[in-house]
Structures are given as structure tokens and as C-alpha cells.
Design goal:
Length: 324
């Protein structure tokens, strides 16, 4: 509690209204972090320990790890800067070879009954699986046993919904890694690293002779991967707003994918020096074949305008909100 309170008090006063072109990680650390991490407290990792960690791991901890609730008021560029200042440039270690399947090929047949694709297996969005599709009668539920378990390396939470198609399971992670797993034993077929945490359900759609996996991350990027290989087909930044996040599952129809957008901006409002709020929720339609824009509609048509100032003199804006 002491370490959380200490960092929280420091972050509370982070100025958000006048970011410099080049964010100084050293400055952020000394002004916002050093008061805790320079303490001789066994519960708080000292700077010397942080300097031996990969910057990518520190950033993940700030984004969606143990320090997530503390770092919410920080902008993405500030979190990246302080992680880069503290950590070494090495990326996290790759999974051990034993984690991968002996046969790493993925051969999809979308006609199989064994599937749960996206948020719901039907366009009715009821999240209901029929007995035929489930292959599991009610009287067998009490006899179920654990077949295998899978751990997301380095994460402290698991919040994405898996998509199952044939003999494969596709799921995102808090670490932003997309996993293609065998449903038979949980071994890994392939991995893909996204730009941010992936909370939304992944949607698989036919694309020529292959399939595209469609999903968004919590840094506002939307992706199309080749399901058979994990190869990136394209990715698009859905919103320019730095607090944009994509948490809702996409929906596809007639060669287009529809992407809802929400934001983290309400957490920025914890800082009285943040000019809140300017984000507007939206739905964007993209062509699945190449990610090109079809149309975009904001839930609040009117652009935010200054409406006044708060008690510390920071400008306030509206209308805003209506994230999806």
C-alpha cells in the first residue's frame, strides 16, 4: 500500500496540457517514480533492478501489469519514455521450443461445427451454443476433467475471449500476444505481437483460400492476420486520439469489418491539469481485403469545443464520450 500511494501521489500531478515534442524518460522517472524506487524498501524494486529488465517488460507492467492502475494518468508516450530510460533494449525472451507443436501448420475448415467465432457464434449475438455445435450433452457436464491449461507468460490477468475454429484456438493476451493453439493439447502453432493489450474477441473470416483474423488492441490499433501463419496482412490506427482503445469485438459483413472504438480518457481526468475531454466514440468500416476506409461515424457528431476551465485553470471540453 505504501508503494502504491507513493507513486499515486506523484502521478496525480503529472501535467498533461503541454507535452514537449521529446518526452524525457529521465525527467518522468525523477519527478514521478524516484521517490518510491529510490527507497530501501524490499517491497519496491530499486532502480538498479529495473535497469536490468527489458524495457518492453517494464512498459507492459505500466500498460497492463501490476502498475496499471497507477500509470493510468500517464500518456502512452510518457510510459514508453520512462520504460526506455529504465530498461535495456532487449525484448522479452521467446517461448521455449517445447511450447510449440511438432507440426506448426494450421489448416482451417470454417465449415466444421466445432467453432466459436468472435463474440457470438451467430449473428443474433446471443452467445448461445446449440447442443449439436457444442458436442456436449448436459448430463456430461459433471464428469468434465481438466485436459490442459495454458499460462500467459508475464501477465497478471487474462481477459480476452478465445475463438475456436476446427482444431485451433485463437486468443489474445494482456501482453498483446495473439496465440494460435492446438485444442488437442494446448501447444503453440504461432505467435504474433500486437502493439497493445488484446481484450476483444478475435473474428475469423474467409479471405480467398485462407482466413483473416480480425481484432483490435487497447492502444487503438486494428489488425488483420493470416490465420494459417500468423502473418500480418495489415493494421490501421482507428483513432488519432492518444487515449483510444479497442475493446469491443468486430463484426464482418459483405467484405467489410465494422470496428467500434472506446477510450481511456476518463482515467486522464484524474489529473486536474489534463484538458478533459475530447474523445468521441465511433464506428469505422474497413475493407477486409486491404484495410482501406469505407466510412466512419462518430457517436457524437459535434466536435468538442472549450466549455470553460476547472478549478486549477485547465481548459475543459465537450461534448465528448460515448465510447463503444
Amino acid at each position: 500500500m505504501r508503494s502504491l500511494l507513493c507513486v499515486w501521489v506523484s502521478l496525480w500531478f503529472l501535467a498533461g496540457s503541454a507535452l514537449a515534442q521529446q518526452v524525457s524518460g529521465e525527467t518522468i522517472y525523477r519527478e514521478r517514480c524516484a521517490s518510491c524506487h529510490e527507497l530501501a524498501d524490499p517491497r519496491i524494486p530499486p532502480r538498479q533492478a529495473l535497469q536490468k529488465m527489458p524495457a518492453a517488460r517494464i512498459l507492459k507492467t505500466l500498460d497492463f501489469g501490476a502498475m496499471m492502475s497507477i500509470a493510468y494518468p500517464l500518456r502512452r508516450t510518457e510510459r514508453e519514455a520512462v520504460a526506455g530510460y529504465l530498461g535495456v533494449p532487449d525484448r522479452d525472451a521467446a517461448p521455449q521450443a517445447t511450447a510449440f507443436c511438432a507440426d506448426r501448420s494450421v489448416k482451417l475448415d470454417s465449415r466444421t461445427n466445432s467453432q466459436w467465432n468472435g463474440w457470438s457464434p451467430t449473428t443474433a449475438n446471443t452467445r448461445f451454443q446449440s447442443a449439436d455445435a457444442a458436442g456436449l450433452p448436459p448430463d456430461r457436464l459433471s464428469r468434465l476433467k481438466l485436459k490442459w491449461a495454458f499460462g500467459f507468460d508475464g501477465d497478471i490477468s487474462a481477459f480476452a475471449q478465445p475463438t475456436i475454429l476446427g482444431g485451433y484456438l485463437f486468443v489474445g493476451s494482456a501482453g498483446g500476444v495473439i496465440h494460435a493453439l492446438s485444442v488437442e493439447n494446448g501447444c503453440t502453432k504461432w505467435l504474433f505481437q500486437a502493439e497493445g493489450p488484446v481484450r476483444s474477441a478475435i473474428l475469423a473470416v474467409p479471405l480467398g483460400q485462407r482466413h483473416a483474423l480480425l481484432f483490435g488492441d487497447q492502444n487503438g490499433w486494428f489488425y488483420a492476420l493470416e490465420a494459417e501463419t500468423g502473418r500480418l496482412l495489415w493494421k490501421k490506427k482507428i483513432e488519432d486520439h492518444e487515449a483510444a482503445r479497442l475493446t469491443a469485438a468486430p463484426v464482418a459483413f459483405n467484405g467489410n469489418v465494422f470496428v467500434p472504438a472506446a477510450s481511456w480518457e476518463e482515467t486522464r481526468a484524474l489529473n486536474p491539469e489534463y484538458p478533459c475531454c475530447t474523445f468521441r466514440g465511433s464506428v469505422t468500416a474497413l475493407r477486409i481485403r486491404d484495410g482501406s476506409l469505407v466510412w466512419k461515424t462518430y457517436m457524437i457528431p459535434e466536435k468538442p469545443k472549450q466549455t470553460g476551465k476547472n478549478r486549477v485553470g485547465t481548459s475543459m471540453f465537450g461534448p465528448s464520450g460515448a465510447g463503444i
